[in-house]
């Protein structure tokens, strides 16, 4: 592994650990955390420090060291994790995150002064000066975990011969150990060198046996030698438990180490009661000469708690998965082609075979797509922090409730959903939730509630952000819209249309512009991002009761359920979710110049004639159909020739050349290898509206030169 | 017949190149478009396919004939004759689609674009000395489309400047002008005139 790759691994690991740290700190603020959680908190920082040390990232090590000291006190119970301390720790977390991010970019490290300021604040909370922190912390920890039975400890350091090569000095380790605990006796044990020439000064020839006195745990002792573990065998146990301990680890420890430890410990005054056990193991295990390398197993075994939260996941590069899914898309198409051929050949055995293949392909595709699925919780998880920070900044009390975090959607969508959700949540806290006095006056609890919820509904995922705040003030929105000239003063708008106004660029009804929101940027970006994900956003609101933002998204961007239609010679795919029903076009309305509105059960349905609109060759068919589409809260009829039916389809992007072509959302390849275009019905209707208004506008007041533009 | 003549020239220039400056000889694919022969550097050419079914894309400039399925990728196909403001290419027995890789400077990616030609002739090795700078006028083609004029058998063949001819940027601009007829202000009109000249 090259240094760069190693560093990248470190950065990834550190990010994960920082996430854990943040989650623990946020949890700890609300609930009284137990010792195990505090240990985990300590370990996150400790591990970052350890790994940073490997890469000689001194700034990170120095900073984490101080944080670690404080956390150690917290873990030892000498320092309570108060709200204020958690706040400072969270800011330390941010500082660390900034440092790690800077490493990732290869950019400038964040301001050292800021780090130093944070540390001094931290020390103020811990009531310790920086120099004292390191020394006093463990001493204070001691009484908390007092256990007279475990006062005397035996330690055997079967250090690897390569230790010095790795830049680790055993003397330094021992010095550090001495700062943690009282060392009664150290027994150096020379290994493999018999005083006759060939001395390699960079080789470690020493093992140590130690007798320690103090209150500690095996974990703490092993932590001291964290970096020396590779290739080494480190044994530690209370004197009282030495015999059972040696027996317990006999299976996974090299026998010569066991024997050496046992002998050395006896020299330190330990008298084995059950001496036989390790010896019994010896003859059997002596067949394994690779002694030192087996060492770490013992050590790992003794720290089972550390990895317990880790589930069995594989990290796969996103690109590899994308390639696989693309290939499966090809397979789907190829399979469909095979199916078609089998049908044409009319051989029933061939057809059966191709059906079997199709079934398998379907399963593979579902499986592959599910690999891309991640839980919405991945984005929800960052909100406790956001809500907490924003609420503190605004001096509001907010409770965040999260439900449905296990609903799944496509990874690529999760990434793009973070920012819009962030905007909505910040808005909800800033504008939605009223100040405590107002809330109390309205008979609501002083603490506001913001809720994030996700659930699946008929092939799409719905994400709701709701608050129990003041709700949207329709009059104020209307007033503002009239002021800004978005609508005329006498316009009659439906409820949804009024709410939709807040998504207009630059629209804000907030009386005050704050840091958080109110500048009127944001909501238009929110709507645009959601629409880019082929989603819809709706608002439900009741004055003084609350507001719900409801985002409806397709589960994946890669595949849609389509409805195929044929116009003249071209096949188009309409997203099935937009299709409401299909009706036949009455023959008297066939000519393209006849009325463009249909009476659908006494409802006026504007017709969009695809053939005319797209300038396609006139159709020869004598039957026309209307596909009724639901677009927002309106209906539009699409006039086509033939209905070809439902079809699940893999979306292929059309490429940059067509980026100006909004009405076509993409393309797909049919079973016969031909390309069919997928209509983006929202954009299509918007475009038609725009073109119509432009045409009538042009005739009246544009100059003839412009009117003569191509495409008119 | 013309293929034969070109072949002879081809051999000559190869021999010539081996004798002197091997590095200055580049290879070009010559093809037929209307009554004319053009050539383009082979380095950008991915493959040459027989003409197959194209799906027309509505609301796009005429010279975009449609999109085709290239082993699962959807590739746009451009009618070079229409791009050069000449009569539309009619499909014949020898009609071919030449798949070219084009850089899109805006997104810094490579795009595959197919060009529809009447027939593909052969690969020519042309040395630098045989290439003249594009004439300032009189070539019946936008001068920035021409990379140079190659002297082959006492005739001149136009070497196309592929990045210009298939400029994703320009084609997108043309397409957006078509889609938003009211969007083009007077300031943008000269561009249209230029492109469609």
UniProtKB/TrEMBL annotation, chain A:
<dbReference type="GO" id="GO:0006935">
    <property type="term" value="P:chemotaxis"/>
</dbReference>
<dbReference type="InterPro" id="IPR036097">
    <property type="entry name" value="HisK_dim/P_sf"/>
</dbReference>
<keyword id="KW-0145">Chemotaxis</keyword>
<dbReference type="InterPro" id="IPR005467">
    <property type="entry name" value="His_kinase_dom"/>
</dbReference>
<dbReference type="Pfam" id="PF01584">
    <property type="entry name" value="CheW"/>
</dbReference>
<dbReference type="InterPro" id="IPR003594">
    <property type="entry name" value="HATPase_dom"/>
</dbReference>
<dbReference type="InterPro" id="IPR051315">
    <property type="entry name" value="Bact_Chemotaxis_CheA"/>
</dbReference>
<dbReference type="GO" id="GO:0005524">
    <property type="term" value="F:ATP binding"/>
</dbReference>
<dbReference type="InterPro" id="IPR002545">
    <property type="entry name" value="CheW-lke_dom"/>
</dbReference>
<dbReference type="GO" id="GO:0000155">
    <property type="term" value="F:phosphorelay sensor kinase activity"/>
</dbReference>
<keyword id="KW-0597">Phosphoprotein</keyword>
<comment type="function">
    <text>Involved in the transmission of sensory signals from the chemoreceptors to the flagellar motors. CheA is autophosphorylated; it can transfer its phosphate group to either CheB or CheY.</text>
</comment>
<dbReference type="Pfam" id="PF02895">
    <property type="entry name" value="H-kinase_dim"/>
</dbReference>
<dbReference type="Pfam" id="PF02518">
    <property type="entry name" value="HATPase_c"/>
</dbReference>
<dbReference type="InterPro" id="IPR004105">
    <property type="entry name" value="CheA-like_dim"/>
</dbReference>
<keyword id="KW-0547">Nucleotide-binding</keyword>
<dbReference type="GO" id="GO:0005737">
    <property type="term" value="C:cytoplasm"/>
</dbReference>
<keyword id="KW-0418">Kinase</keyword>
<dbReference type="Pfam" id="PF01627">
    <property type="entry name" value="Hpt"/>
</dbReference>
<dbReference type="InterPro" id="IPR008207">
    <property type="entry name" value="Sig_transdc_His_kin_Hpt_dom"/>
</dbReference>
<feature type="domain" description="HPt">
    <location>
        <begin position="1"/>
        <end position="103"/>
    </location>
</feature>
<dbReference type="InterPro" id="IPR036061">
    <property type="entry name" value="CheW-like_dom_sf"/>
</dbReference>
UniProtKB/TrEMBL annotation, chain B:
<dbReference type="InterPro" id="IPR002545">
    <property type="entry name" value="CheW-lke_dom"/>
</dbReference>
<dbReference type="InterPro" id="IPR039315">
    <property type="entry name" value="CheW"/>
</dbReference>
<feature type="domain" description="CheW-like">
    <location>
        <begin position="25"/>
        <end position="171"/>
    </location>
</feature>
<dbReference type="InterPro" id="IPR036061">
    <property type="entry name" value="CheW-like_dom_sf"/>
</dbReference>
<dbReference type="GO" id="GO:0006935">
    <property type="term" value="P:chemotaxis"/>
</dbReference>
<dbReference type="Pfam" id="PF01584">
    <property type="entry name" value="CheW"/>
</dbReference>
<dbReference type="GO" id="GO:0005829">
    <property type="term" value="C:cytosol"/>
</dbReference>
<protein>
    <submittedName>
        <fullName>Purine-binding chemotaxis protein CheW</fullName>
    </submittedName>
</protein>
<dbReference type="GO" id="GO:0007165">
    <property type="term" value="P:signal transduction"/>
</dbReference>
């Amino acid at each position: 592994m090259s240094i760069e790759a190693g560093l990248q691994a470190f950065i990834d690991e550190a990010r994960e650990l920082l996430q854990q740290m943040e989650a623990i700190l946020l949890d700890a603020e609300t609930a009284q955390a137990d010792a195990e959680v505090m240990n985990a908190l300590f370990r996150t920082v400790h591990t970052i420090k350890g790994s940073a040390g490997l890469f000689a990232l001194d700034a990170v090590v120095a900073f984490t060291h101080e944080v670690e000291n404080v956390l150690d006190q917290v873990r030892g119970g000498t320092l309570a994790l108060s709200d204020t301390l958690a706040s400072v720790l969270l800011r330390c977390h941010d500082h660390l995150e900034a440092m790690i991010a800077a490493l990732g970019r290869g950019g400038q490290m964040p301001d050292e002064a800021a780090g130093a300021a944070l540390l001094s604040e931290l020390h103020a909370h811990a009531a310790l000066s920086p120099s004292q922190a390191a020394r006093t912390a463990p001493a204070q920890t001691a009484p908390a975990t007092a256990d007279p039975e475990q006062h005397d400890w035996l330690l055997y350091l079967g250090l690897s011969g390569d230790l010095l090569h790795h830049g680790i000095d055993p003397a330094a380790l021992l010095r550090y150990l001495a700062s943690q605990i009282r060392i009664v006796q150290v027994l150096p044990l020379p290994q493999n060198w018999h005083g006759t020439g060939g001395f390699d000064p960079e080789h470690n020839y020493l093992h140590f046996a130690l007798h320690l006195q103090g209150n500690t745990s095996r974990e703490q002792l092993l932590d001291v030698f964290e970096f020396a573990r590779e290739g080494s065998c480190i044994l530690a146990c209370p004197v009282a438990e030495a015999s059972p301990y040696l027996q317990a680890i006999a299976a996974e420890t090299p026998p010569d180490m066991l024997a050496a430890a046992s002998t050395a410990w006896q020299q330190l005054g330990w008298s084995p009661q059950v001496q036989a056990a390790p010896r019994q193991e010896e003859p059997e295990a002596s067949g394994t000469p690779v002694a030192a390398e087996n060492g770490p197993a013992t050590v790992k075994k003794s720290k089972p708690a550390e990895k317990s939260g880790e589930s069995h996941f594989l990290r796969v590069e996103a690109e590899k998965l994308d390639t696989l899914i693309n290939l499966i898309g090809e397979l789907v198409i190829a399979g469909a082609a095979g199916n078609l051929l089998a049908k044409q050949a009319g051989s029933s055995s061939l057809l059966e075979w191709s059906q079997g293949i199709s079934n398998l392909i379907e399963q593979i595709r579902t499986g592959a797509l599910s690999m891309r699925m991640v839980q919405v919780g991945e984005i929800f998880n960052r909100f406790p922090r956001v809500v907490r920070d924003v609420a503190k900044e605004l001096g509001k009390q907010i409770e965040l409730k999260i439900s449905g975090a296990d609903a799944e959607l496509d990874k690529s969508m999760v990434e793009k959903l973070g920012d819009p959700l962030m905007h909505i949540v910040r808005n909800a806290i800033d504008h939605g939730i009223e100040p405590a006095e107002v809330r109390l006056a309205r008979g609501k609890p002083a603490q506001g509630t913001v809720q994030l919820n996700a659930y699946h509904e008929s092939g799409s995922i719905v994400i709701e952000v709701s608050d129990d705040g003041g709700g949207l003030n329709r009059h104020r929105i209307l007033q503002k819209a009239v002021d800004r000239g978005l609508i005329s003063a006498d316009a009659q708008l439906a409820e949804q249309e009024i709410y939709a106004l807040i998504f207009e660029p630059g629209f804000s009804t907030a009386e005050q512009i704050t840091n958080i929101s109110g500048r009127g940027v944001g909501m238009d970006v929110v709507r645009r991002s959601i629409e880019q994900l082929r989603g819809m956003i709706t608002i439900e609101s009741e004055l003084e009761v609350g507001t719900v933002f409801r985002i409806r998204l397709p589960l994946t961007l890669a595949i849609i359920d389509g409805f195929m239609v044929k116009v003249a010679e071209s096949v188009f795919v309409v997203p099935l979710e937009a299709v409401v029903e299909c009706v036949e076009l009455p023959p008297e309305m066939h000519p393209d110049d006849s009325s463009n509105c249909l009476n659908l059960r006494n409802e006026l349905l504007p017709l969009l004639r695809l053939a005319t609109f797209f300038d396609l060759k006139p159709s020869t068919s004598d039957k026309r159909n209307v596909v009724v589409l639901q677009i927002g809260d309106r209906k539009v009829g699409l006039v086509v020739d033939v209905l070809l039916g439902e079809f699940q389809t893999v979306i292929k992007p059309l490429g940059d050349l067509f980026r100006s072509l909004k009405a076509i959302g993409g393309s797909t390849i049919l079973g016969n290898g031909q390309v069919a275009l997928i209509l983006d019905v929202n954009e299509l209707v918007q475009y038609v509206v725009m073109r119509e208004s432009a045409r009538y506008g042009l005739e009246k007041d544009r100059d003839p030169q412009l009117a003569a533009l191509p495409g008119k | 017949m013309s293929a034969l003549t070109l072949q002879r020239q081809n051999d000559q220039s190869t021999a010539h190149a081996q004798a002197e400056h091997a590095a200055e000889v580049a290879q070009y694919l010559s093809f037929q478009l209307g009554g004319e022969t053009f050539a383009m550097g082979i380095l950008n050419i991915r493959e040459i396919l027989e003409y197959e079914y194209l799906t027309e894309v509505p609301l796009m400039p005429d010279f975009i004939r449609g999109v085709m399925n290239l082993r699962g990728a959807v590739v746009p196909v451009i009618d070079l004759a229409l791009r050069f403001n000449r009569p539309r290419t009619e499909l014949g027995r020898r009609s071919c689609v030449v798949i070219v890789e084009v850089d899109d400077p805006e997104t810094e990616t490579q795009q595959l674009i197919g060009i529809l030609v009447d027939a593909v002739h052969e690969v020519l090795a042309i040395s630098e000395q045989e290439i003249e700078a594009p004439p300032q006028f009189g070539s019946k083609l936008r001068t920035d489309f021409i990379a140079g004029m190659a002297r082959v058998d006492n005739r001149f063949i136009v070497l196309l400047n592929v990045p210009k001819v298939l400029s994703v940027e320009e084609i997108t601009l043309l397409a957006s002008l078509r889609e938003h007829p009211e969007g083009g202000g007077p300031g943008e009109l000269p561009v249209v005139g230029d492109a469609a000249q």
